[in-house]
Amino acid sequence: MIYNYRLVPAGLLNAFALVLPWVELLAGLALILGVWKKEAAIVVGVLILVFIVAIGVNLARDHAVDCGCFDLRSAGKSRDELLTEMKWVLLRDVGLLLLAFQVLAAERVASGRRINL
């Protein structure tokens, strides 16, 4: 339900809706299967960062978004409940972003390069 975020131009909505799930699926499979780990972690990190920005922008706008991504229980929630849920999703996504960085750091260590933080 990319439309609900009101961030993507109308002409691109269908393309995003068709391509995004496949990018997510392929990047996730690559991480699970251990192929192209660095590239997959970068793609996942960028996607999560985009999700964080999208949720953050809508929170700043005070616009409650029901993405319909994971369950149908959100359908009956009030605006305040949706905004609270979005804050928790934002926090969860920050944690997932940290995990993507962990994969990248582990890849650097495995390849013998030093990590300079």
Give the N-to-C terminal Cα separation: 37 Å
**Beta-strand fraction estimate:** under 5%
Shape: globular
Task: State the helix count.
Answer: 3
Alpha carbon gyration radius: 16 Å
* Unreliably modeled segments: none
Main pleated-sheet profile: none
Q: Label the structural class.
A: mainly alpha
Number of domains: 1
- Mean pLDDT, rounded to whole units? 87
- Spell out the helices and strands N to C: HHH
Strand element count: 0
Which range best describes the helical content: under 10%, 10-25%, 25-40%, 40-55%, 55-70% or over 70%? 55-70%
Structure description:
Helix content is 66%, strand content 0%. The protein is mostly helical. The protein has one domain (2-110). The protein is globular. The model has no long low-confidence stretch (mean pLDDT 87). It has three helices and no strands.
List keywords for this structure.
117 residues, mainly alpha, 3 helices
Q: How is the topology of this model organized?
A:
Blueprint: H1 13-33, H2 37-60, H3 79-110
Helix pairs in contact: 1-2, 2-3
Give a concise summary.
The protein is mainly α and about 120 residues long. It has three helices and no strands.
